[in-house]
Amino acid sequence: MFQGWVRKRIWLQVIVGIGAIALNMLPVSSDIFKVDSLCKYFIFFYAGFLIQIYFEIFPEWKKILDNTGVLIIGCLAWGMVFVAWYICKVTFIPQLCVSVIGIFVCVVFAIKICNIRPGLVLADIGKYSLQLYLLDGYFLGVSRTVLVQVLACTNPLVIVAGNTLFDLAGAFGTARYVLMKAKVLRVLCGEK
């Protein structure tokens, strides 16, 4: 309903887009209610919202972006811009440019894998994204404590892989098999 209303009002999309860019560029330092994070990351939430709207309007974009060459060119472009910006410290490339190219590459990659097994697994996990976000910190805290303090692991690759696997498996299992069983918890998580 809301998306359909916004879809019909291009002037609103432009105004909110300009506002999102302005918010991203503001030097906000207030941590009250995470206003600084909201200002910095709102543009990316809005970009995802617009991508969803326009992919429904222009289905031919999927055919163009499904081309493997587009994915390779996008990855190369993002890699070059990222290396120039982050490693070589080229200051005229804004962080926003690196992020926008990265979003493009992720969208193209998602289109490439959406109908094969890895894409279907990610789609299933994506249904629980809010719950994963909310439960992430708890499982990450437990896995860090176990890996680093109890098991005395010092290998960064093992720590990262172990944290990722335990965190994702624990949060996903809890979201899917515990939170979705109780009607009250299911409604609080935005499910019917």
End-to-end Cα distance, whole Å, is 17 Å
Structural class: mainly alpha
Shape: globular
DSSP helical segment count: 10
What's the helix-strand series? HHHHHHHHHH
Mean pLDDT: 76
Uncertain segments are none
Number of strands: 0
Radius of gyration: 20 Å
β-strand amount: under 5%
Major sheet: size, sense and barrel closure? Answer: none
Short description:
The chain has 192 residues and is mainly α. It is built from 10 helices and no strands.
What does the model show?
- With 192 residues, the chain is mainly α.
- Helices cover 79% and strands 0% of the residues.
- The chain has ten helices and no strands.
- It has helices spanning 2-7, 10-25, 35-57, 60-65, 68-87, 95-113, 117-126, 129-150, 156-179, 183-188.
- α2 packs antiparallel against α3 and α8 (129-150) packs across α9.
- The longest helix is centred in the C-terminal third of the chain and has 24 residues, at 156-179.
- The mean pLDDT is 76.
Architecture blueprint of SSEs:
Elements (H helix, E strand, L loop, with lengths): L1 H6 L2 H16 L9 H23 L2 H6 L2 H20 L7 H19 L3 H10 L2 H22 L5 H24 L3 H6 L4
Helix pairs in contact: 2-3, 5-6, 8-9
